[in-house]
Amino acid sequence: MTKAPAVIWVKRDARLTDNACLVEADRLHLNALPFFCFEPSLLTANDSSDMHIQAQWQAINGLRQGLRQMSSDIVIAYGEVVEKLTKLYERIPFTHLFAHEEIGNNITFRRDRAVAKWCLDRGITYREFPQSSVKRGGVNRDKLQQLWRSRIADIQPMQIPRISQPEELRALAAKTAFPKLPQFTTKQLWQPVSEADAKATLTDFLTVRSRWYRGGISSPNTAFTAGSRLSVHLAWGTITARQIWHAVRSRLADLDPNDPLSSRWKQSLNAFLSRLHWRDHFTQRLESEPDLEFRSLHPSYRDVPYENDERLHKAWREGRTGYPLVDAVMRCLAATGFVNFRMRAMVVSFACHVLHLDWRLIHPHLARVFRDYDPGIHLNQLQMQAGVVGWNAIRVYNPAKQLADWDADCKFVKRWLPELKEQTAEQILNDELLPSYPPRVVPFAERAKKMTDQLYGIRKTAEAKMAAKAVYLTHGSRKKTTSKRPKRIKRPAPPPSPTLFDNLDDNPDLS
Ligand SMILES: Cc1cc2nc3c(=O)[nH]c(=O)nc-3n(C[C@H](O)[C@H](O)[C@H](O)COP(=O)(O)OP(=O)(O)OC[C@H]3O[C@@H](n4cnc5c(N)ncnc54)[C@H](O)[C@@H]3O)c2cc1C
Question: How confident is the model at residue 3 (pLDDT cuts 50, 70, 90)?
């Protein structure tokens, strides 16, 4: 009879490298049995979509290939986790369950607690390992830098350990197949997600694309190649921030000071590293306040009187608001699962400030069309762009100005709005649009003013000011901010071909 194994519960961490669960099993000389469960409660949640399911499917498939090369395998199950763990336990009474901490939505939060209780009831040793600098249960914000150093900067990523899996376990795992999932589709324009793709994307970014990062990530035309495109891998756990951090640091150390381009590389890579920090900063907020999915961080903004007109909500979702850049972004998201930060911020600002839609109402749709959906970043950014955090500037992005600034030749807009293909950039910028394109659903300026008046009205009250201070002390960034606008840097020329992401210029699938 095989020695009782440690079950390695794989969630958003489908990788062999820098995997604390596998390393711990090896350290304790335990047999290891990786286990992944497609959970109907998650698959059918309102923030889930085929884009995510397919990402996880691909990531787990990649992990299975990697494990098979090491003469081991993964159990793949379909059902609720506690029920499936019970079945596995009846078959193989395992003694340890190892998992990485997941900071997800309310469903995963409750599920993780149920699993911990299930283990406790059976005397199974349950250990959860962090995979970021986020501290379980919350932390004093002054300690965040220290946590980052001790978990990310001062520790090298873990190498792939030895995986001990006797034939009996391997055969049991190998028999389990991927479930046939309903409505499961694959789109060519979705970024591939696997550990191998993550490594290739990081290398391509560090050696070719990162040079254009600073200045290149604001335009929807250049961000597809100038951005790292590591968000899907971080979100689904096919790479860790620690692996990325150390790779960037060694790239920075290797820069040749005599190369005239070094300073551009350096600025870009440092700007990129800041964003890795932001990721944990926001995720920590969700860890400390799991209710962020349902209510704003700042108590005074929980009852903003949004109209929530379903007609406007539908027009926004479908990209038929009559505002070309908003519509192009929404249609691009539906087809590719990606746009850059500025465009994401703009469509949220437009939905909340101009269409008067509650951030909670627009959350599920946006989550579904982001291939890199990561609740910690997503929920916090939604609230920030909706202006309900209480201390950030209330920013209303004017889609006409954004179009002139970032897509002046209307390349992006024409690509995603076939109705405007035959029009000149000048006509589009001047809003001289053909009748086949929808008219504006609401007027911009007057609607934006109405909402910002309301938000500033709340902000002025003594109650809101006091609450803002308290919330900021608990959750605000400790970095000094400057009130000056950052210097706009000269936009770099687009990257030369070929990069990993050039195929986006192929005919898009607009179905
Ligand atoms: C409303 C809204 C919702 C968002 N939802 C998500 C989401 O669900 N998942 C997600 O990964 N990003 C989200 N972002 C942040 C950002 O837009 C994406 O991370 C970025 O566009 C991904 O492209 P990249 O990997 O090339 O990013 P890069 O610019 O190369 O950044 C590297 C990594 O840093 C992190 N990061 C980048 N920008 C931010 C930021 N502003 N705040 C926190 N972390 C950041 C991401 O993990 C990203 O992969 C959201 C932004 C907005 C405005």
Answer: confident
